[in-house]
Amino acid sequence: MMNIYWDWGEPPDPRFWQLLTTLSKRETWAIEHGLLAAKIAALTAQALTLTEKEIEQIAIAGLLHDVGKITIPKELLQKPKPLTEEEYAQIQRHPSLGARVTSAFHLQFETIEAIRHHHERFDGKGYPFGKSGSEIPFEGRIVAVAEMLSATLTPRWYRPPLSPTLAIERLEANISAFDQEIAKAAKFQLPKLFGSSSLASLSFYTKPVSIERLIYEEEISLWHTINTFVNALLCEIERMMGQKFCQAFINFLNEWLKARKIPIGFHGLKPISKHKWWQTLGELALFGRTLLSAIYSMLGQIVGSDFASDWFDAICSQLPEQVDAVGLRYELWIWKRNENLTAVKSR
Predict the structure, then answer these.
(1) Residues spanned by the domain of 250
(2) Looking at CB atoms within 10 Å, which of 48, 159, 263, 325 has the fewest?
(3) Which residues on neighbouring strands pair with residue 272, listed in sequence order?
(4) CA of 149: how far to CAs of 95, 152, 167, 178, in Å?
């Protein structure tokens, strides 16, 4: 089976992941949705024999297509009742807002246009412009199909994830909304997400496929990063402050975890997950940020926030480069200020 990870040319800018992580605080499935849309868009572009550079740019558009939602109130995104016309109009602004946000990264024009047009429909019934047919940029037509399929495979507030079989059925039932050549390419490429080259094999997938099967490597990397940093920090606490203080600190962490019903126990200085308790990458990233924030706050009260920041930085500098990169990707290093991302948010 094919795992979902970035494998198109150079790894994307870490700020892309930070945008998705920020969005996941509002929509917990945002990271998975972006990753799946990126992969489906890339597979579709491959089938259409686009160049490697074009495939990479379309994949980036798939990854970031929903980031405009970071400007929309959380309560509106999570509203359990039907939206009013005014509220729906706000939601319809997110493609344009996403194009504005991502323009700060100096992406290719075609990539930004794909983000701007990912909710346009071939029959003219989409938004925000109501364009139809060839009026919609080609890249936007690809991301539109990828977005729909990814949205079917990932959960929403009002429903669980749906099956690959149902994703194909929905694509076929709404074929007039999409460029048929692109929809056909996406349809025949979809089995590759599940390690198969045969469309007939999707008939066996009549139940939702767990997201962790599709993003296994990302999930493992994120948990490993949280685990590695906490272990390194506890080793430093024991070295600098002694075993008794370190054990008292571990006891504090155990109580903190128990109060939140998080099934983690410490084996020596290493946190061990008794079983998986998170549902999405967004939830796991939120746990990591909250845990490190609690640790940083407590140590800051003891040794001072400036010393704690320098201490945490020193630990980060000793981590393997890949581990540090994952920490930056999911905003785990809560004591750091990312001025570039702050600038993007303020636009």
Answers:
(1) 216-346
(2) 159
(3) 265
(4) 17, 5, 6, 12
